[in-house]
Amino acid sequence: MLIPVILSGGAGSRLWPVSREAYPKPFMKLSDGESLLLKTYQRAANVARGGELLTVTNRDYYFLSKDEFSRLKCDSTLSASFLLEPQPRNTAPAIAMAAFRVQDLHGPEAQMLVLSADHLIENQKGFAEAVNQASSLAEKNKLVTFGIVPKSPETGFGYIETGVSFDSGFIVKQFVEKPNLQEAEVYLKAGNFVWNSGMFCFKASVFLDELQKTAPEVFKAAFDCWESLHLSDTQGPMIEFPLKSFSAIPSISIDYAVMESSREVVVVPSQFDWSDIGSWSALRDLVVPDSDLNRAIGETIFIDCRNTFVQSESTGRLVATVGLDDVMIVDTPDALLVVHADRAQDVKQVVDELKSQCHEAYKFHRTVARPWGTYTTLEHGPRFKIKRIEVLPGRSLSLQLHHHRSEHWIVVSGTAKVSTGDEIRLVHTNESTYIPAGHKHRLENPGLVDLVMIEVQSGEYLGEDDIVRFEDAYGRFTGEVG
To answer: pLDDT band at residue 477, thresholds of 50, 70 and 90?
Structure first.
């Protein structure tokens, strides 16, 4: 039995402005229209043995993740399960909680294949072969990590030095932090160093035993958090960890907590292509260049440019560049990034600055995903905001009220079911309704097609946190934005 465990978290701040806190990089669409998370799901589904695919993610990404899984083309017997974190605590706690779930549900001999949601691997056959090798080593009670055979002196990855051979793998001699260029060149020439991919395979019980030995404080806190759940809660397809007990788990990576200390670690050197999508440089390199090494996603004109990358998320907008060298441009409907190629890692500083200014662009796009659909802010100013709202068939917003704003709704297409107080009525295409401030209301889409409407808000305060929820189908609480 091999249960894939997908770790899907992190804001991906080096990929701003496409990756944002409310819609991070696992959900970013690549040039083929598929997200990194969907590609990871597909890769995991192809090698799963046991009928379950487990995702560990933040509670805010639950519905986005479910939607991505629903797009998966796989055997219908494969079900999705989710472990929801109330806050990030790094990889060791996430994997520990997944191990408790797998051990309790599938038994101590069940293996876990731990994958990151932001990796890209095109060679599915090579990946499957490496997983089979890792699984055979995990059967011998080893903690297996995947090492990528380096093709260049890369300074953006950690390295693993391999020791003596062990079956189809090698005993790990040491883990090495990200090197400088000179050190990376030495590792490449040595021939016994591989990139640390951050992917793992092991029995759930073996990992927990090693965690208890190498980081007993992490094991104890994770065990206490798991035990705080009711037995019935641990069996279902969605488990949400309580904030108090989960936040008590030390925040630490699996490498520091277990892999660098355990004597049971082996590495499988792997030849399949692998990319850790951690910056715009990595995404740029996925695009086929022209004769001047320029690359573009979206309608772009290059005049006397070299090694320039443009990605345009703005539908219908042309990007023209003249006389540029080693520049990357990322255009979205509400933010534009222009960065020298050598400074791609520093994009995170933009996000830090936006946070310090309390600017919403660090967290939200102009179009914001919600469990019921999306809303797009079209225009806003003093005392007014105009939105385009799209509600999926059969979905509904919470029963709520706003203290400071009133809302005018105009149905563009579809039919809206509107509840205000004790009154329920249908609002059809080209019809409108009005929701005064302080009135309980709910919006539903009872139809089989998307409901599209324009919302005009007016009032003294138009923040997304002006909401009081009374009922919600998605488990959100009063004061939670959206």
So the answer is: low
**Whether 151 and 10 share a structural domain:** yes
- Cβ atoms < 10 Å from Cβ of 42: 15
Q: Are 468 and 476 contacting, i.e. CB atoms less than 8 angstroms apart?
A: no
Domain boundary among 276, 297, 320: 276
Structural domain containing residue 336: 280-346
Of 146, 417, 175, nearest in space to 269 by CA: 146
How wide is the angle at C-alpha 193 spanned by C-alphas 192 and 197, nearest 5°? 140
CATH number of the structural domain spanning residue 162: 3.90.550.10
Q: Is residue 153 part of a domain?
A: yes
Residue-by-residue DSSP string for 35-95:
BHHHHHHHHHHHH-BSSEEEEEEEGGGHHHHHHHHHT--S-TT-EEEEEEESS---HHHHH
Considering the domain architecture, whether residues 148 and 229 belong to the same structural domain is answered as yes
Closest CA to 186 of 150, 221, 218, 219: 150
Give the model's confidence band at 473: pLDDT under 50 very low, under 70 low, under 90 confident, else very high.
confident
What's the pLDDT band for 475 if we cut at 50, 70, 90?
confident
